[in-house]
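Filed under: proteins

Residues; backbone shape codes:
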Amino acid sequence: MGNDSVVVEDNYDGGYYAIKGFLYQFDSTLLTILKNPNIDVKFEQVQDISYEDYVIQVKHKESQTYSDSKIRKPVLQLMNLFQKDTEKKYALYCYFKDKPILEKNLKLSELDSILGAEKKNYKRPLKIKFIQNFVIKFSHDYSGQFLETIELIKKTYSCKDNETAVYYHSIFRSKLLEMAIQNRDERQLNSGLLSSLLSNVKSVVFHAAYADYLSKEKYEGIVKKMFFTLKKMNIDNYERLFIIPVDDMSNEIVLLTIIGRIFQKFHRPDKSPPPYVVFKNIKLEKLNLIKRTLIDREIIFNDGTYFNGDKFRLNKLTSHDKSVMVKIVENKELEEIMSAVSFQEVYQFYFDSLTMINEENLKKSRHYQIQIDEVEQITKMIT
């Protein structure tokens, strides 16, 4: 992000506030695009957001009360830009917990107070002209802005329900996250490009925070509807990969249920190959217990070995055997497998952090990243 666009509020939970700072700015960008459908909106270029004659900084100070010093740095950044280009309009969008929603034009004395000791570095005529071209907008907090964004998406795209609007939001936000690490001159979007994303979804990050808006049950339901409800009679003949996180609370019965639902939904002999399943951070004893149970239940799987203690053999795992119903892979073999198998769909469930996957191995894949609070949720999503 920009020099100060992600704000760490205190030492207690800096990561929490940093992430919300990212997401708050992305929603600000989405709102700007949707409210200005006929123009290109740039983000993280000159400043956080810019379009036509406007340059905008975005700040989300969730736990703080307002003081002039807390907006000094972004205002100084905007003033320095103004010195170079006095024809543009400049704005600071910010949230402080003690400030109501309002739009404020500064008086010269108020600007001087914000600038503090730095005010002497700017001549009076420049400051006067700056305040004529500058506005501070005290905005919604994270939740309020999120709700505003969802409502605008719902209206813009004539969504039948909130769940569809949330799904669209996840697609748009995922694209912004993806673009944030691209070259600076590539970071721009418009409403037309947003619309095109809806018909060609290549990557989605679906955050558990949506459950705060939808409820946990509706969150699980929308994931099921969007990703695991077959929309036609015949299943596509795709190679599919599922990455499942495991913690100490994940018992083998739940993990076996997940395996069963995956291969029952996606494997069809002669029509769709057996899906690959990776259990992330699973203990060897638990993994072996799952494999023994699958054998006892006469569920045929392939794990890339011929016997217990054998080395991993990629050619064994990727061989075509019509009797195999599911392929079970250790996390340490993931990159090797993804380099060898052309997965059309990758479903990555995660608790707090995603498994980093080489982008080269995802070029031909639709990549769905779905956050969960507990592994049991997957059994409700894949039914």
Q: What stands out?
A: Residues 1-17 have pLDDT under 50 and may be disordered.
